Amino acid sequence: MTNKLNALMNDKLHQDYAIESGVAMHVRMQNIFFDADGNASGDTDIIAKISNNKELVEYMGPLSRTEVPIAGYIGGRFVSCRVDRLYINEQTKQIVVVDYKTDIDKERFRRKYIDQLTEYHKLLCDAYPEFTVRGFILWTNDFKLENII
Questions:
Q1: N or C: at which end does the chain have fewer Cβ atoms within 10 angstroms?
Q2: Measured between alpha carbons, how far is 62 from 59 in angstroms, rounded to an integer?
Q3: What CATH number should be reported for the domain holding residue 42?
Q4: Counts for the chain of helices (H) and strands (E), in that order
Q5: What CA–CA distances, in Å, run from 66 to 60, 75, 147?
Q6: What is the reported pTM?
Q7: Residue-number span of the structural domain to which 27 is assigned
Q8: CA Rg value for the chain
Q9: Are 79 and 73 in contact (CB under 8 A)?
């Protein structure tokens, strides 16, 4: 009984820590911006990790916004969500969603994350039918950008 209780408590502590560290990383990411000249503002450690990825720098630039609410219907079901980073390029008719994930084990919740990006994709395609919509996961444990959609 004591071992089960200890295991449950440890699992809960681990889950709480994961949530707290994920929220803290999202707050740090919200403040990252690169201007049109490539000058950055925000957390210098994160900027250093992002700076060598030209694509990611663009998605963190003047055409992007953070914590963008989107909503609509998917299969008759109302869906409301918040996109971590939304890049909209009116000239190229391109929209990019960058969803931050702090997991070290990239496979553990992969299906859930793909489903989440699929919902974002559907909502944005419905709202912007003339745009190409892409979705990425930014794994913040190694700052790898993974193309999902």
A1: N
A2: 8
A3: 3.90.320.10
A4: 4, 7
A5: 9, 27, 19
A6: 0.87
A7: 2-147
A8: 17
A9: yes
How many domains does the structure of the chain reveal?
1
Contact 23, 82 (CB under 8 A): no
pLDDT tens track, the chain, 149 positions:
677 766 555 555 455 555 677 789 999 999 999 999 989 999 999 999 999 899 999 999 999 999 999 999 999 999 999 999 999 999 999 999 999 999 999 999 999 999 999 999 999 999 999 999 999 999 999 999 999 99
CA atoms of 95 and 128, how far apart (whole Å)? 9
> In the structure encoding, which two tokens stand for residue 75, read together?
């299969």
74: phi then psi, degrees, rounded to nearest 5: -125, 115
Nearest partner of 137 among 95, 105, 106, judged by Cα: 106
What residue type is assigned to position 42 of the chain? G
Residues whose CB is less than 8 angstroms from the CB of residue 47 and which lie 6 or more positions away in sequence, other chains included: 32, 40
DSSP 8-state symbol, 146:
E
